[in-house]
């Protein structure tokens, strides 16, 4: 508004300096006054952190303006403009009593297990939504009337969400952080319809009774000791793995050395086996060749002997055949030649009174030689 007045005054001074006729100053001044009055009634300035709602009083239409600068209005009451503060605001729940719309009594919650705990200073950052400033103005009213939405919604929803937790779970920052986020989402679902939103909820560590605080402290100490034990276990595990790695490295070295030795011995054994096999094959070839040669020689000898025997057989057969065809005298002559030098003892004996034949017994080799 002050910027508009300054601009109008500067315009009037420029007009007076440019006019050569001093008699017309009156009319120019009157015109400037009229223009200044109309300007004051038909425009306004929007600063950063503010939103304006321009209302057409004839049609009832509303327009939300969020861009800082000069806002023009139709004169004669056709349009009105309402400015709303949309900068971030801070709502506190702390202390034992309510002091203002932005500072109320601390938040006390009953947990799901029946115990009570208190958040001594809960801070909520909120603002009127710039793009929905018309809804905030319509549902809340002018100025900072939208502050009144915070107390009932924030307290009831925070109590509801934190009341779902037990005293054990709520003492864990992760759990009550999740409860805080659930509460923020629920509050925005309700307040968003009225053009207000919560951007952040900051809750301190809940405060319990002294006995429970002592238990929490003891638990924290136990958790710290557990963390130390876990750290020692992790360090021992790392050391164990390091020693295992060293043992595996040494054992692998020994295994590799033994494997190299065994592979060398295997290669030598394979070489010896190959050499032995070669010698065996050579010996086998030599023996087989010698055996084949001996077999061939024996076969030839056998064939020769067979020929000889056949010849001898033929000769003997010819002699037998020739002997068979000779007369008895020649046979007896030949028999006498064979029995030459053989002594035959003949002893006559009488079997009866008139012997008719003589029995001869071959003694010693007589029979054999006779044959």
Notes on the structure:
The chain is α+β, with helices and mostly antiparallel strands and 371 residues long. Among the domains are: 2-85, no CATH class; 89-208, Band 7 domain (Tetrahydropterin Synthase, Chain A); 336-370, no CATH class. The chain is 57% helix and 15% strand. The protein contains 9 helices and 11 strands. The protein has helices at residues 2-18, 25-42, 133-140, 150-163, 167-170, 173-191, 210-324, 328-338, 366-370; strands spanning 43-46, 50-56, 62-65, 69-72, 79-85, 89-94, 103-104, 107-110, 116-119, 121-128, 196-202. The chain has a 4-stranded mixed β-sheet, covered by helices on one side. The protein has a 3-stranded antiparallel β-sheet with strand order 3-2-5, with helices on one face. It is rod-shaped.
What attributes does this structure have?
371 residues, Tetrahydropterin Synthase, Chain A, alpha+beta, 57% helix
């Amino acid at each position: 508004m002050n910027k508009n007045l300054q601009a109008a005054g500067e315009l009037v001074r420029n007009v007076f300096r440019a006019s050569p006729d001093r008699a017309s100053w009156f009319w120019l001044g009157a015109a400037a006054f009229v223009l200044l009055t109309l300007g004051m009634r038909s425009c306004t300035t929007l600063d950063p952190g503010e939103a304006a709602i321009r209302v057409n009083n004839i049609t009832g239409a509303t327009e939300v303006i969020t861009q800082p600068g000069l806002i023009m209005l139709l004169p004669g009451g056709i349009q009105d403009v309402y400015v709303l503060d949309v900068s971030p605001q801070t709502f506190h729940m702390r202390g034992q009593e309510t002091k203002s719309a932005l500072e109320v009594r601390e938040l006390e919650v009953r947990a799901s297990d029946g115990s009570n705990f208190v958040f001594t200073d809960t801070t909520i950052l909120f603002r009127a939504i710039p793009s929905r400033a018309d809804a905030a103005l319509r549902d809340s009213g002018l100025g900072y009337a939208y502050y009144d939405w915070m107390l009932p919604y924030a307290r009831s929803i925070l109590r509801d969400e934190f009341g779902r937790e037990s005293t054990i779970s709520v003492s864990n920052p992760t759990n009550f952080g999740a409860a805080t986020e659930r509460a923020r989402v629920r509050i925005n679902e309700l307040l968003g319809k009225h053009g207000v939103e919560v951007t952040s909820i900051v809750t301190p560590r809940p405060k319990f009774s002294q006995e429970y605080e002592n238990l929490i402290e003891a638990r924290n100490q136990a958790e710290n000791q557990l963390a130390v034990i876990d750290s020692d276990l992790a360090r021992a595990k790392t050391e164990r793995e390091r020693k295992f790695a060293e043992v595996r490295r040494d054992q692998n070295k020994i295994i590799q050395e033994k494997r190299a030795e065994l592979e060398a011995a295997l290669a030598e054994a394979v070489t010896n086996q190959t050499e032995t096999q070669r010698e065996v094959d050579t010996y086998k070839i030599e023996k087989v060749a010698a055996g084949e040669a001996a077999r061939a020689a024996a076969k030839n000898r056998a064939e020769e002997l067979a020929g000889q025997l056949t010849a001898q057989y033929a000769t003997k057969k010819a002699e037998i055949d020739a002997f068979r065809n000779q007369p008895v005298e020649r046979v007896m002559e030949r028999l006498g030649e064979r029995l030459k030098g053989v002594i035959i003892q003949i002893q006559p004996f009488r079997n009866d009174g008139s012997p008719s034949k003589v029995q001869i017994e071959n003694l010693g080799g007589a029979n054999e030689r006779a044959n």
